[in-house]
Amino acid sequence: MTYIGVKFTSKEKPFEGKGQTYYYKTSLEFEANVAYNIYAGAYCYNNPVIVVEKTNKAPDPSRVYKEITEAKPVAYMPRTLKPWIIPKKVYFNPDNGGVTCVIWEDGEKTLVRCCEEDVFDFEKGFAMAVLSRLYGKGELNKLIKKFIRPAEEKYDEELRAKCAFLCAMSEPAESIDDVFRRIVEKLFEEEEDEE
To answer: What band does 79 get if pLDDT is binned at 50, 70 and 90?
Structure first.
């Protein structure tokens, strides 16, 4: 069990924790520089929190701590950029595995690499480094799996269906009008089959 110290923030400024530090116990993993909505049992707190301290020992052993049972990252961007999100230097290495390295104003660095099947893109490398810094690599990968992968699969299925339909035309089309005529005929055939 881990004990974390959190500061409550506002929805308008989720990365600016103010006031007292509150301690909770949890078995969840929390990433740095991420604001979370936390749930302690059935209770959800109204304002996001940022983690300011982690420890394996209870700060006050005589106290009973509420347990954070669920935490959801909050996707609010800070209104003013803090040093941890301002790039100081950016290095691109398209020839050595498509690497982009960003050194941030606070001295930390973020390294991203494009997949083997991808073509290196300077803009995409920089954008992925910024997103990795904002969300943390683990949370960013979860978001990609949740939103991007299903969209890619759906697009691939639609594209295969269109290709199969066009390949099913036994004779080459004489003109674009011929292609459209065949598509309309095929659509009417499908409607009749459904009835």
So the answer is: very low
Q: What residues contact residue 48 under an 8 Å CB cut-off, 6+ apart?
A: 8, 9, 10, 11, 14, 35, 36, 37, 74, 76
| Type of residue found at 143 | L
| HSE-up (13 A, CA, CB side) for residue 140 | 12
Pairing mode, if any, of strands 109-113 and 99-104? antiparallel
- CA distance linking residue 4 with residue 22, whole number of Å: 8
Rounded Cα distance between 34 and 137, Å, is 11
Residue 34 CB: number of other CB atoms within 10 A? 21
Cα separation values, 129 from 36, 80, 100, 117, 156, Å: 21, 19, 7, 19, 27
Strand positions, DSSP E, 14-166: 22-26, 35-40, 43-44, 49-55, 67-68, 70-73, 87-93, 99-104, 109-113
* Beta strands 2-8 and 43-44, pairing class: unpaired
- What phi and psi values does residue 88 have, to the nearest 5 degrees? -100, -45
Rounded Cα–Cα distance for residues 93 and 99 (Å): 5
Give the pTM.
Answer: 0.43
